[in-house]
Design brief:
By secondary structure, the protein is of the alpha+beta class. The protein has helices at about 5-15, 15-25, and strands at about 35-40, 40-50, 55, 70, 75-80, 90, 95-100, 115-120. The chain has one domain: Crystallins (Gamma-B Crystallin, domain 1), CATH 2.60.20.10. A four-stranded antiparallel β-sheet has the order 2-1-4-7, with no helix packed on it. The structure holds calcium ion (2 copies).
């Protein structure tokens, strides 16, 4: 094994998780509400941008998969446990993000999202 290969392995192993997350959530470009299948902004990503949009996760084979999100849209958004805006819901303030919805987190919201809406302004929730 070359010295260069050892160096790469070590840097990967010692890379702090926060720094890794910082890197990957940049995958969500300005203007989008992004949701990821895994915590810490990893895994399959969906992104939405349109004002007033309502999306059903079943349409994207994303039923009960979201484990992290970031809102880089200029508007608020909201996600729902059930289809068609049903069940418990959580605000996604514009500019905010949550790195780990669970299981085991405060609200234990991981893998529960079935629908999402993007509001038309930044003061809806
Ligand atoms: Ca998940
Ligand atoms: Ca659900």
């Amino acid at each position: 094994m070359s010295a260069a290969a050892v160096s790469v392995e070590r840097s990967a192993a010692y890379w702090p998780l926060a720094q890794k997350a910082e890197h990957v959530w940049l995958d969500c470009q300005s203007g989008y509400v992004c949701v990821w299948a895994d915590s810490h902004y990893i895994g399959r990503r969906l992104q939405f941008a349109s004002a007033g949009l309502r999306a059903e996760m079943a349409d994207y084979s994303f039923h009960d998969k979201m484990s992290s999100w970031r809102n880089r849209n200029s508007r608020d958004a909201r996600w729902y446990h059930d289809e068609n805006g049903g069940g418990a819901s959580r605000c996604m303030n514009n500019g905010a993000r949550v790195s780990d919805l669970g299981p085991g987190s405060i609200f234990d919201d991981g893998d529960k999202m079935d629908s999402l809406r993007v509001y038309t302004n930044s003061t809806s929730c």
